[in-house]
Amino acid sequence: MPTEDYHHLLTEVDHLQDWYSNTIWGQRIMCDDTLFEVMSLQVFQAGLTWRMILNKRDGFRSAFGNWSIKTVASLGTPEVEVLLNDPGIIRNRLKIQATIENARIILAIQTEHGSFCNWFYNVLEGTEYPDLQKTLRRTFKFMGPEISRMWLMASSRITTEEGYKYRPKV
Questions:
Q1: Nearest in space to 67 (alpha carbons), one of 77, 55, 80, 57
Q2: Which of 110, 111, 109, 96 has the alpha carbon at shortest distance from 141?
Q3: Hey, where are the domains in the chain?
Q4: What is residue 1's predicted lDDT score, i.e. its pLDDT?
């Protein structure tokens, strides 16, 4: 890749990181599909850099029907196979299957509680990370401690200060 193309790519990703940091991170999300997108991107980011995820954001949106919960929940085995061959996303079978299963779980949450956002902000009990993380791990697929922590902070369910208390030690 020529140097100027690489720098353009870095500038574009930096623009996306600025957008995410200033528009999404730490903000209360009022749209079920957007809350699902933020959760799913955290799942896909596990073990990878956030820069890589943001660089593939448009690919994810295209592959997952603009993060429509109903669309993602309807995906089956043939669509999983197509997604595994899509270079625009992270092609990890477990993460793809977890995303689809999580969409199905969210549909049930919407039916029971009116909306995913209502459940997440008003029904999900607890204000501290350990209790919230245990519930998220029981409820969703691929929702380990770090994914939960980052999603809870990103969506303003817990404060950054609360989340940083539980940051993994390096």
A1: 57
A2: 96
A3: 3-164
A4: 45
The average pLDDT across 138-163 equals 93
Task: Categorise residue 113: left if φ over 0, alpha if ψ from -120 to 50, beta otherwise.
Answer: alpha
pLDDT of residue 23: 75
CA–CA distance from 27 to each of 1, 85, 99, 121, 165 (Å)? Answer: 36, 33, 22, 12, 19
Q: Could you tell me how many residues make up the chain?
A: 170
pLDDT in tens, 1-51: 444 554 444 455 567 677 677 777 888 999 999 999 999 999 999 999 888
Q: Among residues 71, 66, 59, which one has the least CA distance to residue 37?
A: 66
- C-alpha 13/C-alpha 3 separation (Å) is 15
E strand or H helix at 94: helix 93-113
Look-up: residue for tokens 């073990």?
A: 47
pLDDT digits (tens, 9 = 90+) for 67-120: 999 999 999 999 999 999 999 999 999 999 999 999 999 999 999 999 999 999
CA distances 36 to 19, 57, 64, 82, 114, Å, are 18, 14, 11, 21, 15
Does the domain at residues 3-164 carry the CATH identifier 1.10.340.30? yes
Q: Are residues 93 and 80 in contact, defined by beta-carbon separation less than 8 angstroms?
A: yes
